[in-house]
Amino acid sequence: MNSVETQLLVKNFGAFVAVDRVSLAVEKGEIFGFLGPNGAGKSTTIRMLCGLLTPSAGRASVNGFDVARQPEEVRRTIGYMSQKFSLYDDLTVEENIDFFTGIYGVPREKRAARKRHVLEMANLAGRRNALTRTLSGGWKQRLALGCAILHDPAVLFLDEPTSGVDPLARGAFWGLIHDLSQTGHTIFVSTHYMDEAEYCHRLALMYRGKVIALGTPAELKAGLTEHSLLNLEASDPLDTMRALEGLSGVRDVAVFGGGLHVTVDDVDATSARVRERLAAQGIEVRKLARIEPSMEDVFVALIEREERKAA
């Protein structure tokens, strides 16, 4: 049995379709990533799966419980962590943990062991007496994750858990997520950070309420192999983009960091045309080399494909 399943799941808010016929299946122990920009429908989908919103159409189940008919059973078997820090700043780390063991109904005889496990898992034992408001963003996220798993839920929903956290803390947080996955927990996590997609076993890419791609990071990248990708650094990126519009062999040009990523049909022939066109317009080419696509390249390409279909 899959930990999470959805079939043609829909959520409408009046005339607005926030989630549009989403079908997914997530296996036990899987780290399943929901990738997409803000407003894509990720959080709305997660709230339906947590039994917090009723679907407008379709069906979904979590741990074998129907989210529309058995929301209480769903909530008892999941952990949930939102992008907004939701613990109590005026309590210590230990007091927050004690409070949530009661909220989650952890049996009294298991509370000491669960607290010890959470403190060790999140490396918070040395900060157990610290007021929560004195913790950095990364340590707060560790505490929030620890509180979300106090009752040892089979499925953990993390809604953009690293939003606003520095890259080093994000890396440490994902280490904790992988440790949980290794012990059989299913992790359903949404993010708009493209680099975090690499940490997931599989991904669903969402855009305007729809899943536009589904697969492992490697599979999604392989979907771009029909074309090649060039990294281009030039003296004037904006003028470079204009100069390459309509150039034979150039499929797409996108800003990436301080340079450009250029999708082409043929590396050698198109590279020569690119250099010739830019030289004719007085633009200096500082670097032009073939590269492997990143998840950001995949996402940009897929969104542009959807935009072309809509047009």
**Topology, number of strands:** 14
Number of domains: 2
Distance between the termini: 40 Å
Helical region count?
A: 10
CATH-scheme architecture of the largest domain: 3-Layer(aba) Sandwich
Main CATH class of the largest domain? Alpha Beta
- Major β-sheet strand ordering: 6-7-8-3-9-10
CATH topology of the largest domain: Rossmann fold
Mean pLDDT: 90
Q: Any idea what the CATH superfamily of the largest domain is called? A: P-loop containing nucleotide triphosphate hydrolases
Strand residues, percent: 25-35%
Shape field: globular
Compute the CA-based radius of gyration: 23 Å
Note poorly predicted spans: none
Q: Mind summarizing the main beta sheet?
A: 6 strands, mixed
**Structural classification:** alpha/beta
Approximately how much helix is present in the residues? 25-40%
Write the H/E string, N to C.
Answer: EEEHEEHEHHHEHEEEHEHEEHEH
